[in-house]
Amino acid sequence: MTNDSRSAPAPATADEGSLPTVGVEEEYFLVDPVTRLPVSGGPEVAAHAAGDIGDLVAEEFAQCQVEGRTPPCRTASELRRHLARVRRALVDAAGGEGLALCASGTPVLWGDGPAHVGDHPRYQAGRQQYRTMMDDFAISALHVHVHLPDRELAVLTVNHLRPWLPLLIALSANSPFHRARDTGYASWRSVIRSRFPCLGPPPYAASLEEHQRLAVVIADTEAMLEPDMPFWDLRPNPRLPTVEIRAMDVLQHVDDTVAVAVLLRSLVVTAAGKAQLGDPGPAWNSEVLRAACWRAARDGWSGSGFDALTGRVRPVAQLADQLVQHVRPVLEQYGDLQTVTTFVRHLARHGDGACRQRAWAGGGAGPAGAVDRLVRETARTPGFDDTISGA
């Protein structure tokens, strides 16, 4: 990766108080340490952890999952501290219930029958509306929120973000196994999601009014539960003053999550700046983007993918470098360039999460060996001054 700025003056560093906040949500599986199978302990683990971290923990759609959240943060170090604290609380709460926390986009192993669904009315409505499609809808994501309170601007910003979705899937791919089988994909979670008509890249919308109108039309077909709560990979969050990016698998390491979050903040800020200048963003057809997302899910970091700026196919490593250069002025201004370049170098040396899972399953260890290592990596919550180690 080129990281030589000696010929250019260093940009001014933003005051910490002026930085747009960023926050994350991470979903995890709960597994039995002996059988390595997912266990429906989400409600118990969430209640246990709430005594330590309050509303930064929540139940998930499948009862074998639990979600951890951070508050809005302004710096990478602040985000790292909060994320490490939340993960540690969830690891301890799971241990207190005789379980282990596992950061993988899909369950590596599985028992008999469909996933047990939580009691939330929205979860039950999803089960009724989508029926058997929900039987294996136990998947764990990383969601990143970037503060952007102007909803009209948020919709226009999303237009600029859409072409980057395939690359985000490739960078975060961490779900090669599903129910003890190597799927041949880097992100099987993305494949499971792609079956649903209301998940994936959002439609291009020239205004907030058009965005809302499209959601109503889709909800009227019953392909979406509620028009006010679309589950596209990008959206102005319905309840928070943020742009929410939802395409990524949950990541194995705290520092990976921090790096992706601040990279996305710089991308949102860069895109919002273009939108404010009247640039409408590239109107790539949603079917083209869905096809590009499929290829990213199949090949991950090791393959080639869709160039968000030209539409050509190039190696993902080159596309990652291009993204960093695209947002570099903001990364430098916010003091995040080193965090992001360290993450990309780690991918270049060790591959994505899917590559690592396959390596851990090798040598006769099998998928159970991948679960054991995933549990250890999920529990590794470094202090905010630590850097990514060569796992």
Order of helices and strands: EHEEHEHEHHEEHHEEHHEEHHHH
The CATH topology, please? Creatine Kinase, Chain A, domain 2
The residue fraction in helices comes out at: 40-55%
Shape: globular
Query: Stretches where pLDDT falls below 50 for ≥5 residues?
Result: 1-11, 383-391
Q: So, CATH architecture?
A: 2-Layer Sandwich
CATH class: Alpha Beta
Give the termini separation: 20 Å
Largest sheet: 7 strands, antiparallel
Q: What integer value in Å does the Rg equal? A: 20 Å
Structural class: alpha+beta
The total count of helices amounts to: 13
Average per-residue pLDDT, rounded, comes to: 90
How many DSSP-defined strands? 11
Approximately how much beta-strand content do the residues carry? 5-15%
- Number of domain modules: 1
Describe this structure in words.
With 391 residues, this protein is an alpha+beta fold. The chain has a single domain (18-378), classed as 2-Layer Sandwich (Creatine Kinase, Chain A, domain 2). The chain has helices at 42-53, 76-96, 121-130, 151-161, 165-172, 188-194, 208-220, 254-276, 286-299, 316-334, 337-350, 353-361, 366-379, and strands at 22-31, 57-59, 65-69, 100-102, 141-147, 177-178, 181-182, 234-236, 242-249, 304-306, 313-315. The strands form 3 sheets. Strands 1, 2, 3, 4, 5, 8 and 9 form a 7-stranded antiparallel sheet that branches. A hairpin with a 2-residue loop joins strand 6 and strand 7 (181-182). The longest helix is centred in the C-terminal third of the chain and has 23 residues, at 254-276. The two termini are 20 Å apart. The relative contact order is 0.16. It comes from Streptomyces lancefieldiae. This is Putative glutamate--cysteine ligase 2.
